[in-house]
Amino acid sequence: MKVDVVLGLQWGDEGKGKIVDVLANSYPVIARFQGGPNAGHSLHFEGKKFVLHTVPSGVFRKNAVNIIGNGVVIDPIIFKEECLEIEATGVPVRERVVISKKAHLILPTHRILDAASEAAKGKSKIGSTLKGIGPTYMDKTGRNGLRVGDVLTADFADRFLTLKNKHLATLAQFDYEFNAEEKESEWMEAIEYLKTFNLVDGEYVANKYLTDNKKILAEGAQGTMLDVDFGSYPFVTSSSTTCAGVCTGLGVAPTKIGKVYGIFKAYCTRVGSGPFPTELNDETGEELRKKGFEFGATTGRPRRTGWLDLPALKYAIMLDGVTELIMMKADVLDTFETIKVATGYKVDGVETDQVPYDTYAEIEPIYKEFKGWNRDLSQITREEELPFEFMNYVRFIEKELNVPISVISLGPDRVQTIFRNEE
Questions:
Q1: Cβ burial 221-254 (10 Å sphere, 16+ → b, else e)
Q2: CA torsion, points 207, 212, 217, 220, in degrees to nearest 10?
Q3: Which end of the chain has the least Cβ crowding within 10 Å, N or C?
Q4: In terms of pLDDT, which residue wins out, 118 or 298?
Q5: Within 10 A of 308 (CB to CB), how many other CB atoms are there?
Q6: From CA 280, how far away is CA 93, in angstroms rounded?
Q7: Which of 388, 391, 269, 288 shows the shortest CA–CA distance to 333?
Q8: Confidence band for 423, pLDDT divided at 50, 70 and 90
Q9: Hey, how many other C-beta atoms are within 10 angstroms of the C-beta on 396?
Q10: pTM, rounded to two decimals
């Protein structure tokens, strides 16, 4: 059996949570493989909305096991709050979620370090969510981190203090006021809550499910263009958001990867700083923001908006080995008379179809225009009912990307989803 993967192909916020929730009905195991509480996966069903930050998006499916993999970083306070909210709806979270002992813990001082570092950068800040993600991954790669399995050791308090003191020594270099003890007791209480979950050797658990012919759906956070290696560095996240991250984030071999679902919006958005070639700083961009409710699920920050960027999508598809595409939020474009798609760039005056290495290069998008469909798509349930102008847009994208669009989402609810190939 294989691990199928759901990935965002843009700068995050593509709608991965909804799709994982929809697909979860066909998978006995759902797994998060990277990222942390900087993720915000929104799910809508039965007239309710849920935003998940650490818990995998299959938690609302009765028969699904949800694995938080070793590649994830966990803030115990945020995790506890999230789980209690879910439990309040009657969902038995602790029966459905298992946590890898090798996942790393976000300490209160990680968050302080994040804020101090971002403040020191001034105008060159990267747009961090200030959740302590970056400093936690730095401790992981620096071999200083605390892991979930450490909470079961007799000297956990000493290990915590050692890492905290290391952070305090670093913070002494910043001109930044903080209270290191402010969240510490709450954090320790949340650790006790965390210990009530099934803490497992995640790599063995995942591979045992595959051996037992139970397929896994791996759920990514953020998006490919925010990958620490291949994104618009340094305006990126601190983990591997590409398909390769599944292997290191869950402990499965590359040969175990099956389908790769690449999710993209019918337009583009980005939160925080960094290049955005098709960004619209005008009334059209504002209209996209309002119609798409483009505000961060985690931070509430307004998202930057722009037209679809095909060179960036081709780049992401190449990196991830995407086998099927899923188009999100096409209904947001319902009222636009003209819709544009970037088919290439002019980089410092030279035409190219490749994403440039230089994050600070002058990029001018080359656009192709399409006639809008001027029809409400949100109530359509069958592909045959979709307007010609919209399907012309879809088929052009498929041809350019050379990957089929198998799912079209026309609204936030589970039921507002068209599967083009029922198999």
A1: bbbbbbbbebbbeebbbbbbbbbbbbbebbbbee
A2: -10
A3: C
A4: 118
A5: 25
A6: 41
A7: 288
A8: very low
A9: 15
A10: 0.92
In angstroms, the Cα distances linking 39 to 12, 14, 73, 423 are 9, 11, 11, 30
Give the model's confidence band at 17: pLDDT under 50 very low, under 70 low, under 90 confident, else very high.
Answer: confident
Q: What mean pLDDT is reported for the chain?
A: 93
Please indicate whether residue 212 is annotated as part of the active site.
Answer: no
Q: Peptide bond before 234: cis, by omega within 30 degrees of 0?
A: yes
| Per-position DSSP letters for 61-130, written without gaps between them | STT-EEEE-TTBEE-HHHHHHHHHHHHTTT--HHHHEEEETTSEEPPHHHHHHHHHHHHHHGGG-----S
Q: Is 173 helix (H, G, I), strand (E, B) or coil?
A: coil
User: What gap in Å lies between CA 210 and CA 106, rounded to an integer?
Assistant: 30
Residue for token digits 């225009």? Answer: 369
DSSP 194-229: HTTSEEE-HHHHHHHHHHTT--EEEE--S-GGG-TT
Query: Could you tell me if 311 and 355 are in contact, meaning their C-beta atoms sit under 8 angstroms apart?
Result: yes
Residues in the chain, total? 423
Contacts with 175 (C-beta within 8 Å, 6 or more apart), sequence order: 120
User: Residue by residue, what is the 3-state secondary structure of 286-314?
Assistant: HHHHHHCCCECCCCCCECEEECEEHHHHH
Asked about 41 being catalytic, the answer comes back as yes
Condensed to tens digits (0 to 9), the pLDDT of residues 267-285 reads 999 988 899 999 999 999 9
Instruction: Tell me which residue of 179, 158, 163, 48 sits closest to 104, measured CA to CA.
Output: 163
From residue 188, alpha-carbon distances to 43, 77, 151, 255 in Å are 30, 9, 10, 40
What are the tens digits of pLDDT across the range 394-415? 999 999 999 999 999 999 888 8
- Token pair 């188009």 in the structure block, residue: 327
User: Among all chains, which residue has been given the structure tokens 């990267």?
Assistant: 126
Mean pLDDT of 78-84: 96
Contact 74, 193 (CB under 8 A): no
Q: Per the residue annotation, which of 4, 21, 41, 227 is the catalytic one?
A: 41
Task: Provide the token pair at 347.
Answer: 């980089």
What pLDDT was estimated at residue 69? 98
